[in-house]
Amino acid sequence: MRAQNGVQPFVHRCRVYYEDTDAGGIVYYVNYLKFMERARTERLRDLGFAQSTLAGEGLLFVVHSSEARYHAPARLDDELLVSAEVIELNRVSLRFRQQVRRVADDVLLCEGQFLVACVGADNLKPRAIPQTLRSAFADLGGAGTSGKAGE
Q1: pTM of the complete model
Q2: Predicted confidence (pLDDT) per residue in 104-150, tens digit
Q3: Is 77 a residue of the active site?
Q4: Each residue of 79-111: pLDDT tens digit?
Q5: What range(s) does the Thioesterase domain occupy (predicted)?
């Protein structure tokens, strides 16, 4: 994966298993979304924030919207690198840009953007992202911030 602005993007390594493939032997399209979800979760963990701990503190992250483009198929036993880069940090949401690449040849297989909202676990209403988490993402230098009301 290429560095952007001198910051090495976060990547999660995974492998394609039989359960990930369709009858044609290629990764079923929705499984790319699962790979990207795991990379976002591991990104948070890498920053010191386990989703289970955040949930215990009454905070959840939910996908508000997603966009994916498919370029080439992954197949059984392929090793993949899945990036998770925060490109926008707002008061109650994060926008991730993600790519799935095959390790063997660095071919871009799938890419997408995901708007992830922070909500209260008790009522699922928007909630401000805790300052410690905002600071962790801001310290990466790759995320732009927005001061838009309601975001």
Answers
A1: 0.86
A2: 999 999 999 999 999 999 999 999 999 999 999 887 765 554 444 34
A3: no
A4: 999 999 999 999 999 999 999 999 999 999 999
A5: 24-104
Tokens of 14: 């995974």
Cα dist. 6→2, 13, 43, 79, 112 in Å?
A: 9, 21, 18, 26, 22
List the structure tokens of 73. Answer: 């198929």
Longest dimension (CA), the chain: 47
Q: Which of 53, 60, 49 is nearest to 132 (CA)?
A: 49
The amino acid sitting at 55 is A
**Residue for token digits 């990379």?**
39
Which one of 22, 46, 77, 139 is the catalytic residue? 22
Q: Which domains does the chain have, with CATH numbers?
A: 11-144 (3.10.129.10)
Nearest-angstrom CA–CA distance, 25 and 105: 19
